[in-house]
Amino acid sequence: MFQPLELFVGLRYTHAKRRTHFISFISLTSMLGIALGVTALITVLSVMNGFEQELRDRILGMASHATVTESSGRLSNWQGLEQTAMEHKDVIAAAPYVRGETMLSAGKRVSGAIIRGILPDEEATVSDVISHIKTGDVRQLKAGEYGIILGNELAYALGVGYGDAVTVVAPQMLVGPTGVLPRLRRFKVTGIFEVGMYEYDRGVALIHLQDAARLFRMGDEVTGVRLKLDDLFRAPDVARELARQLPGDYRVQDWTRQHGNFFRAIKTEKRVMFIILTLIVAVAAFNIVSTLVMVVADKRADIAILRTLGASPLSIMLIFVIQGAVIGVFGTLLGVLGGVALALNVETLVPAIESLFHVQFLAPDVYYISKVPSELHWRDVEIMTGVALLLSFLATLYPAWRAARTHPAEALRYE
User: Do 74 and 12 share a structural domain?
Assistant: First the structure.
């Protein structure tokens, strides 16, 4: 389809003559506009990918990839259930837990919180909360010693620190000679954790599994079993498979159902940002229209001569498509190179800019994520490259079509 004549003439027209410097300037600005748009698109989406990954890691550091519970809220034979779940090829770790809502008090301060009873050794295999303990040690959570690890915001709200005592009020009541009394238990603060999510730092406390079972009168039962999967993105499929395989009336929930709205909102925001930035690329790409329209007007005599020499309308059209495509291809390639380089070095460049201008974009006392993360997805780069090239090609069609409709007699009438 592309003959040497069309390619030769199309590339020839991309070079400026003395009287067409202005057209070449417009071509250069179109190329740079496409490059800047593609660079911005790749960089922004990479930063959004980084924030999504950072938030996912922090949420799944406390939550689990999947949980197995029963309709009654109690699991009796949880050891056997744990072994059965571990037989699935995608499950790499499992740990029991006891969960209950309580009221914590210290002095005159009171705050609601969710108590999670854990086995310290097994909990480290299904979540990252153990690695986020700032003060104390998870090994101090021993059965019968009633130690408690608080989120840092919860500890601040209660005004307590390491070694202080807090009173945990369970929702179950005791009936005695004096009437109905709340169940109280005094715990010693043996650690403080910070995962960087206010929801967990403000409302979760950890105690030993056996202490939680005594507090909530669970006996040898637990609330459920937390699972860690080899691939967290296969969590919905694995949850359905386990629900069919496990004997009994069990409910298997994955993280996409527990936090689905949050991550759907992030994906929606990412799509909207992609559309907005694509419009910027489209504006730059359609500057090619004005460039080619001016070139066609300037080359009317050349077009007429080529037509009289036997060039077909298709050949004329291809000449200007090639000229516009050269602008789009070079602009896109420059944008991809700049965007990839910037996305891979955002975490280095941002601190350098902050240090140079003595500013801080994400203050740690305001934001939990105090650095700008970036994660480059090559699939995004491929899509953005394709979109930019497509827009550049579409921008060439109308001017090229107008050039192909040029009549030689009319074009040469006043020459």
Answer: no
Tell me the C-alpha distance between 241 and 231, whole Å.
14
H/E run at residue 180: strand 179-193
What residue numbers bound the domain in which 186 lies?
64-258
Q: Are residues 159 and 189 in the same domain?
A: yes
Are 289 and 164 within one domain? no
- Cα-only R_g, the chain: 33
Burial 22-59 (b: 16+ CB within 10 A, else e): ebeebbeebbbbbbbbbbbbbbbbbbbbbbbebbbebb
- Give this prediction's pTM: 0.73
Judge if 39 and 110 occupy the same domain: no
Q: What is the pLDDT of residues 293-339, one digit of tens each?
A: 887 777 777 778 777 777 788 888 888 888 888 888 899 999 999 99
CA dihedral angle for residue 146, residue 152, residue 153, residue 157, rounded to 10 degrees: 50
Based on the fold, state whether residues 97 and 238 are members of the same structural domain: yes
Largest CA-CA distance found in the chain, in angstroms, rounded: 116
d(CA 120, CA 6): 72
User: Do 64 and 226 form a contact (C-beta atoms < 8 A)?
Assistant: yes
Reported as a single tens digit per residue, the pLDDT across 375-385 is 999 998 999 89
Alpha helical stretches, state H, 361-405:
378-404
Same domain, 271 and 398: yes
